[in-house]
Amino acid sequence: MSTEAPPAAEQRSGPAGTWAALRPLVLRLHFYAGLLIAPFLLVAATTGLLYVFTPQLEQLVYDRELHVPASPRTASVDDQLAAAQAAHPGASLMSIRPAPTPTDTTQVIFHAPDLPESFQRTVFVDPHTTEVRGILETYGSSQALPLRAWIDNLHRGLHLGDVGRLYSELAASWLWVVVLGGLLLWFRRRRTSRKRLVVPEPGATGRKRLLSWHGAIGTCIALGLVFLSATGLTWSNYAGANVTELREALAWETPTVSTDVVPPEHQGHHGHHGHSAHTGGDVGPERVLRAAEAQGVTGPVELTPPTSGGAYVVQQVQRHWPTQQDSVAVDAASGQVTATLRFADWPVMAKLARWGVDAHMGLLFGLVNQLVLAALVVALLTTIVLGYRMWWRRRPAGAFGAPVARGAWRQVPLRVLLPLGAVTLVVAFFLPLMGVSLLAFLVLDTALGRRRSARS
Questions:
Q1: Which domains does the chain have, with CATH numbers?
Q2: 304: β partners
Q3: pTM attached to this predicted model
Q4: CB neighbours of 425 closer than 8 A, spacing ≥ 6?
Q5: Before 322, cis peptide (omega within 30)?
Q6: Is the keyword Membrane assigned to this protein (predicted)?
Q7: pLDDT tens figures, 85-128
Q8: 3-state SS assignment for residue 148
Q9: Using CB atoms within 10 A of its CB, is residue 409 exposed (0-12), middle (13-18) or buried (19+)?
Q10: Which of these, 40, 284, 329, 339, is most buried using a 10 Å CB contact count?
């Protein structure tokens, strides 16, 4: 994706000269955004590359906590919970993830108010002997163990809290803009063969060779980069909040199974909604799990105890394809299933959001997903380095960058300029950090232009 003006002979004319007027704007935006946002992209890409293979690293580093010898005997979930509570007395139970296979441990998860947000303490229990294999701090809904949690927070915010998260949001906000601007510049260049869009020009030397590789690699990974940008924004502070509000307004949010329990005296009657009543007693996690299995909710699951007199929730947590996210609610007093929610019944946009996040994390398609992400990140790093190399070779001595025609926006027809301005305002509102940084780019561009005019 080009960061420089091609020779006039290589330019393609746009309808009614519109492209000729727009090109300097696109080039200038691509140049400044690419040059100034690239350091943030370098950090995000490097830390993301570290994260890609952390699931395999977890299996090696935390082998004792995660794995046990297989045995024909399995203790009840109730007994496993009792062993975990004895090892971590006084803690409030958050959820239980029973061992999905005979060689896995059961994870009993406790609230940890003394830890940062989204962290909890997990007791790992041998499902056969109820031996406690270890207690670790875990993070998020994916139950990231300390190594993966550390790298995750490095990627997300450089371990600097909310201030650090600004860097990743800035990178995600601008990545798609740099990509689309670069594609527009690259596809408008005149070339003898369309193959040169994705295959570097053989025999090219110097700056032309750098540009050929930069544009071809950028074109090949463009779709993947836009995907990473869009899914990455869902985790951000400001743009992420806007995404959440939009999903709520359009009823695209992830549904949850109802945990309301109707009291016996109201069963069979209509017009009673929202009742939550615990009728006494608790059948325990073991019977709850058996009730869920009878409804087909099997495999890796998470069992969440009732709160405020509601029901237990048993939710499938398999994040790889085919996605299993069915859930049921089970009455604690009777052990009866009171509600069922199938992943097949989720709204389409909620499904796409689930798949998008899992693919971004390298979970959806397992090792293939991880290898594709790794290749995508390496290609992005290569493209950034090539872009910087082109800028350095073309940069005039003592100047920030190669001169690009200024003020060309005045030649853009109003029928193009007004919609473009309106779209920019909407995007800047939806992506606040992009709007603020765009304003900073304009100030910098104006200052450099005045400095150049003063010198000349």
A1: 8-52+159-246+367-455 (no CATH), 68-144 (3.10.450), 264-345 (3.10.450)
A2: 313
A3: 0.88
A4: none
A5: yes
A6: yes
A7: 999 999 999 999 999 999 999 999 999 999 999 999 999 999 99
A8: helix
A9: middle
A10: 329
